Amino acid sequence: MLAPELGEELLLANEEHKLGAFEKRWLKFDIIIVDKLGYVPFTKMRAELLFEFFAGRYERAIVMIIFTTHLEFTEWASILGNEKMTAVLLDRLTPKAHIRLLNGEYYRSRQFMKRREETNQ
């Protein structure tokens, strides 16, 4: 799920007083993939809801969480808006983490450049 969509769904569930039911539905998943974390900063409320969601997964369930992001951990506070909350979240997530840093060109950029070269020939 895209990170902004997850934040929006958490916010709506909270506003409708259905946050518990929302989180309970997610307990059945063994893997959660959060895509594009960091492309859009979160409001204070969304960031807090995301923190509670991931902290809850850590505390209540054995689950694999995969984040895709272009940000280093040191930059996560810029999207979550709170350095202490970010530090606590990373403290809970990273001890059991397998971190894969992928450096290089973005796939779409490479494909764009390839098509551009083909058209110029």
Task: Describe the protein's architecture and organization.
- The chain is 56% helix and 11% strand.
- It has a two-stranded parallel ribbon.
- It is elongated, with a radius of gyration of 17 Å.
- The mean pLDDT is 87.
Order of helices and strands: HHEHEHHH
Can you list the strand order of the major beta sheet? 1-2
What is the SS-derived class? mainly alpha
- Number of DSSP E strands: 2
Query: For the residues shown, what is the average pLDDT?
Result: 87
Largest sheet: 2 strands, parallel
Q: Brief description of this entry?
A:
The protein has 6 helices and 2 strands. The mean pLDDT is 87.
Structural key phrases:
mainly alpha, two-stranded parallel sheet, 6 helices, 56% helix
List the helices and strands and how they pair.
Blueprint: H1 3-15, H2 19-26, E1 31-37, H3 44-60, E2 64-69, H4 76-80, H5 83-93, H6 107-120
Parallel strand pairs: 1-2
Helix pairs in contact: 1-2, 1-3, 3-5
